[in-house]
Specification:
heterodimer; A: 137 residues; 3 helices; elongated; B: 274 residues; mainly alpha; 3-stranded antiparallel sheet; 3 strands; 9% strand; ribonucleoprotein (chain A); structural constituent of ribosome (chain A); Ribosomal_mL43 (chain A); Ribosomal_mL43/mS25/NADH_DH (chain A)
Amino acid sequence: MSMATKVLPKVNNGTGAFVLQCKSLVFNYCERWGSNKGMIEYIKKDLATFARENPQIEIIVESRPHHHPVVRGNYLNGRDKVICTRNMTPSEISKKVDLLRDSSGAKLKNLTKKPVISTTESVRGVWSPFHTNPHTI
Amino acid sequence: TRVMAFHAKTPALNEQQELPPNVSTANNNSTLAAFGARLGIQSLNPSLLEQAVTHGDATNLTYLGKRVLGLYATEYLHTKYPSMHMSAFQQILKKYIGYKSLSHIGNQVGLQDVVRWNREEDKTLVHSSVLAECFNALVGAIYQEQGPEAAKKFVHAHILSRELDVRPFLKLENPKRYLSALLKKTNQERAVSRILSETGRLSSSPVFVVGVFSGENKLGEGFGSSLKMAEHRACQDALASYYGKEEKDFVLPSDADHVDNYKPPVLGSTEAIV
């Protein structure tokens, strides 16, 4: 039994079913601090609509006194992402919440180093000096 | 003056409005509701969903779900690989719907947050097998409530859509022997191996490329640092390309009544027994 027979079938999220990677969003607010004004507005007005539009995400609203407002996204890979929303307007908070919803939870990768990321090798092959015409002066 | 009228309790979220089930309140299971929606089964009765994820209550559903899952997976894989020999087929089937695979899928989908089980109930019970059995129970619940079509859609979407490379499973010991038996069974000419190319025969690292032929047809090709190894690989290749032949366009037998002209899928013959 080689190593290759120990792998399980690989999932391609979206090929069959699409499973949203964000499993829950926790909204923390404080009633006293002024930085929470936008968050409280958001919770009162926009949160219910967001919850209805995204039934796969569990929405938890918790009071966290004497702290800035925070949105925490929990993901299926076990990681979480936290965004502090102090002094943000409800529309700004809505943007951050959308960002958390659309994330996979994976650690942020630096994509600037490699121009192409692919599962298949290049079609024409990578250049090699041994397979080109000899240099002529 | 600016007066901030904040309330002592949660800001108006759990009062007037009819909140969706995925919002956590004092007395609802929002995790379960969210889980159901994540799998695409929000239409399933919540009490049935709860029963399916409670390990103690789910025995009937697990039993049913296992059979349903077995049916759809076997049907699909058999249609896709009609000539596959039985040992490889069973291994591949197990890879898709075995306990390890289902618990892996369960973990990927958040079932571990929702499943309810009593560890003291059975000392030999393991978390992964609980997940697998609850996943089976889910399939059973969908079949029970929403019918075979919905169950089939669920199985295909979450389990059968996954990719698995089948070549490593098609390896056999004594491939030469199996190939001879296969050629005898299919009334083809006896296998002959011929060197296709070689390099460095007398060096410390020779490479031979050997092809195995039945008459004029090349059945398989293999490389190796010795002639024997190359022939071995060539026979493996030949067997893999026969037994691992994949059908692309097919109509599943369970779709027979949804299609106007049902053409049954290819029924491969049994493997050559050695």
